[in-house]
Design goal:
Number of helices: 5
Radius of gyration: 17 Å
Distance between the termini: 19 Å
Order of helices and strands: HHHHHEE
Length: 142
């Protein structure tokens, strides 16, 4: 791979990492400012989850999003956030595909999962503050 191709690839990964982090932050702040954390807890209870889970989920989305924007172990953080959206997608499946459907659809959570998986597969990108360990042909590299 040429230097310019590698630079383009690293910048593309960085764009994905930062925009994904911003989306995770926005998803957390929606719970805080629009639905409120007590309202989110009430929603969790209405779908059969313990309401108290709203608080660590909010924290995971916010802290995870910030870590992605800054490039703090981005691969691991992206992988860590996937189960949150997998459950969200499962909750929204009955509402249909489009997330703007009444009750929200499943396409937004599935897209965040796909983008998180892509980032996990590709690495941290440029300007990461703490690089993740990458697995390459069975051995760990920095």
């Amino acid at each position: 791979m040429s230097l310019s191709q590698n630079l383009s690839l690293q910048m593309g990964i960085t764009l994905l990492r930062v925009s994904l982090g911003v989306m995770w932050i926005a998803h957390a702040l929606l719970k805080l400012f629009v639905f409120t954390l007590p309202g989110t807890a009430q929603f969790f209870e209405s779908i059969g989850f313990p309401g108290i889970l709203a608080y660590p989920i909010f924290a995971a989305e916010l802290i995870g999003g910030i870590a992605l924007v800054l490039g703090l172990y981005a691969r691991q953080v992206a992988l860590w956030l996937i189960p949150i959206m997998a459950v969200a997608a499962g909750v929204h499946v009955p509402n249909g595909w489009v997330h703007t459907s009444p009750g929200g659809g499943w396409e937004y959570p599935v897209f965040l999962m796909a983008a998180s998986i892509a980032l996990w597969l590709m690495g941290d990108g440029a300007a990461a503050l703490r690089r993740s360990t990458r697995l390459t042909l069975g051995r760990a590299t920095a």
